[in-house]
Amino acid sequence: AIPPDLQTLADYERVAERHMPAASWAHVQSGSAATLARNRAAFERISLLPRMLADLRGGHTRLTLFGREHQAPILFAPVAYHRLAHPEGELACVRASAAMGIGMVVSTLSSVPLETIAEAARDAARTLGVAPVPLWFQLYLQEDRAVSAELVARAEAAGYEAIVLTVDASIKTSGFALPAGVTAANLPGGADRRQTSAPGGRILFGTRLADDAPSWDDVAWLRASTRLPVILKGLLAAEDAHIAIAHGAEAIIVSNHGGRTLDGAPSAIDVLPAMAEAVAGAAPLLIDGGVRTGTDIVKARALGATAVLVGRPQLHGLAVAGMAGVAHVAHILRADLELAMAQLGCPTLDRIGPACLFTRAS
Length: 362
Ligand code: FNR
Known about the structure:
Blueprint: H1 9-16, H2 22-29, H3 33-45, E1 47-48, E2 63-65, E3 68-70, E4 74-76, H4 89-100, E5 103-106, H5 114-128, E6 135-139, H6 145-158, E7 163-166, H7 193-196, H8 216-225, E8 230-235, H9 238-246, E9 251-254, H10 268-279, E10 285-288, H11 294-302, E11 307-310, H12 312-343, E12 357-358
Parallel strand pairs: 4-5, 4-11, 5-6, 6-7, 7-8, 8-9, 9-10, 10-11
Antiparallel strand pairs: 1-12, 2-3
Helix pairs in contact: 1-12, 4-5, 4-12, 9-10, 11-12
């Protein structure tokens, strides 16, 4: 049962700490202190201008992305090793996403094989009598291109609907060692080779990641290697958005990786207006980093994002209550979003725009 004191994502974060081993908790929460704080502060700085007495009939939070209907502009961001938070790992998360109609991006570093996750999504949809939830596969390019190609082919065969190439992966090493029983289930030998080749037994995002960082040639290669839409995750510079579109990216996830990459990187929401101007409607922009409430989602939409992703809150929900916890986290966000939309006089997502933002000049 979900304890009654869990009403917000902040509540889940607070309680989750008690449900995870200290080392795993520290790993999940880690990031540059300055960037982590900025990810929240950037949302908190933005004011919204409520509107009264609007006609809210016919209101809903649905949107269409790559031809598929999503129940809300919220997706689960790719997060490695869900089994750090709960023994059912990604299976619990995908069942929650199926129940809530929230799309999920499955990490290359999932702790359950990508095929098993897709199968669980289909089973859940059958049981619930609903359409299968859209699943996207997140790719970390592997040292060996054949291994990357194999991952993409497996994702296609398993029914994933887009490839999310994460390009900001030169992540600081944390010295975090995976606990027994948690592996990179999609990769040969169950290990990220970049990790095992790192000195000092550093695990997860190993020290060679910076050297192996993808180049634009790899984006062109990926574009030519799959029939699925290619989405680039981890861009913050408007100029990179231009280059991404020129290389065939069909969407961009504006992200600082939850504050886990460059110390001092701006928050996604702060660079969003410049990104939106650069892309000029040529591709949907999604953002993540610090999204914790419905008003955060409204602010993202008002500044040009199509949808948002949430990372750590998935693990917080998993740690506290498994599938039910993740479903509850998604429900809180959706309920919160509807409330914010109603208070702004916006019964549908396309009504959310710059007019929802309060600026001193207005
Ligand atoms: C991540 N993130 C991530 N991104 C990715 O593309 N592949 C991955 O495997 C992971 N793994 C991962 C693990 C953990 C523990 C965290 C916290 C984050 C980044 C993730 O997709 C997303 O960008 C951020 O988590 C968003 O910020 P919030 O919602 O956590 O504030």
